[in-house]
Amino acid sequence: MNKTKGATESEISKALIQWQKEYLGRGPIAVKTDILRDLVIVILRGILTPAEYALCKDREGVLLIKKTRTDLIESGVEDLKRLIFNITDEEVVSFHTDVSTKTGERMMTFKLASNLEKKY
């Protein structure tokens, strides 16, 4: 692999921002990607709209926002897996995600077929 770990993490962050803008119509305020062993961990900040924050004042609203946001991401999961593969040359074997309705952050975790960190 010719790229550094930091360069790969930055490339993943930029690609996820672009994917969010194209697929969901708006991107996060900030993205941080970390490669740890066979995991790619991505934190996206500033993903909720003011209207979504307003809905999160009670448990029903929190559950609604979490479900809607998760369903949106899951509908594009094959694109996300392909995006990670194209950057890392590693197959994504599982994908996990959740959104915090308190902080407006989304965490995405991609579990890869092998230890990507060892390649750097």
UniProtKB/TrEMBL annotation:
It comes from Halalkalibacter alkaliphilus. It comes from the Bacteria. Residues 4-113 form the Na+-translocating membrane potential-generating system MpsC domain. This is DUF2294 domain-containing protein. Pfam families: MpsC. InterPro entries: MpsC.
